[in-house]
Automatic annotation (TrEMBL):
This is Extradiol ring-cleavage dioxygenase class III enzyme subunit B domain-containing protein. InterPro entries: Xdiol_dOase_suB. It holds the Pfam family LigB. GO terms for molecular function: ferrous iron binding; oxidoreductase activity, acting on single donors with incorporation of molecular oxygen, incorporation of two atoms of oxygen. Residues 77-258 form the Extradiol ring-cleavage dioxygenase class III enzyme subunit B domain. SUPFAM superfamilies: LigB-like (SSF53213).
Length: 328
């Protein structure tokens, strides 16, 4: 029978993989962002600066702090990569959101499992911000690459989840010319050995961003429990790792929410998880629901917060709550 041997959670913000001396330049774009969402409300940049003036953020907006936070992130990510290498899984199940890479407005399932033989990573020809290009090696790859998948496990997960009350969509092929997206590519480039062949994978895609069929946070936790049961019912001997990619809070950092999510997963506090509202998990912060799915899958393992880094880049509190977590 298959064994779930390791769980990991890693943020995939460009901040983590671009040089820290570009954070200030990258932050300039936040001032023009009309969709800064914090505590269930959209804010103009200047109003958010005023609202968060007492949060002690301004003194953290400097190159020295940026450099220190960036270094912490590299250390934590390297620790996760070492854990993955040590666990030596046969397959990795990567859980995260789809950013219109596989799905678009013509079809957007709440949950989907990819069970093709391979997936393709295709770097974009241009980037929406020049600073992001410096993180492209991690988020998109430097050249097209084909990743192996484990189609039999993918099919088994689809059947198992559908048999346990989760009507997941199945995906066997990518749209022509579309990349699998940075949810998956980041895991390959930051957590796997880039000099070796990628580990076989099964992408599990959640619609965390796009209304009206986003899942509830608690439903994602239950999905994870269903994933674990399906993995452990797989009849062949396989060592399986489950990895959450994305999150935590962004594009406005919310330390209180991030710590609530991390603590609820660590304590297996299903009452707290049931109390989470989808209204708090919007925009980039919605990717935290993928973490809840992995937390549910790994509820039988012990969770360690390797690091949590509230990586502010402006006085308004924009940035990313970067987290690196291990279940073993």
């Amino acid at each position: 029978m298959a064994q779930l041997v390791l769980g990991l959670g890693v943020s995939h913000t460009p901040q983590m993989s671009m040089p820290s001396d570009l954070w200030a330049s990258y932050a300039r774009h936040d001032r023009k962002n009309p969709n800064l969402i914090y505590r269930r409300k959209k804010w103009a940049y200047e109003d958010l600066v005023a609202t968060r003036a007492g949060d002690g953020i301004a003194e953290r907006i400097n190159e020295e702090t940026f450099s220190a936070l960036h270094a912490r992130a590299q250390t934590a990510v390297d620790s996760l990569a070492a854990s993955l290498a040590e666990a030596a899984p046969d397959v990795v199940v990567i859980v995260g959101d789809d950013h219109h890479e596989i799905f678009a407005e013509d079809s957007m399932p709440t949950f989907a499992v990819y069970w093709g033989e391979t997936v393709r990573a295709i770097p974009p020809e241009k980037f929406w911000f020049p600073e992001v290009a410096t993180a492209a090696w991690a988020l998109y790859g430097e050249q097209p690459e084909t990743y192996p998948c484990h189609a039999p496990l993918g099919e088994h997960l689809i059947r198992g989840l559908n048999g346990s009350g989760f009507d997941v969509a199945q995906v066997r092929a990518q749209p022509e010319g579309q990349s699998i997206g940075h949810t998956v590519v980041l895991v390959r480039n930051r957590l796997m050995d880039r000099e070796a062949e990628p580990l076989p994978m099964v992408p599990v895609l959640l619609n965390t961003y796009f209304e009206p069929n986003r899942p509830a946070p608690a439903r994602c936790w239950e999905l994870g429990k269903g994933l674990a049961a399906a993995i452990e019912a797989y009849p062949e001997e396989l060592r399986v790792a489950v990895i959450a990619s994305g999150g935590l809070s962004h594009f406005v950092v919310d330390e209180e929410l991030d710590r609530a999510v991390l603590n609820a997963m660590k304590d297996r506090d299903e009452e707290a998880i049931a109390g989470f509202s989808g209204e708090d998990f919007v925009s980039g912060t919605s990717e935290s629901m993928g973490w809840l799915a992995v937390g549910g899958a790994c509820a039988g393992l012990d969770m360690e917060i390797v690091d949590y880094i509230p990586a502010y880049r402006t006085e308004a509190g924009t940035g990313c709550g970067m987290a690196m977590v291990r279940w073993s």
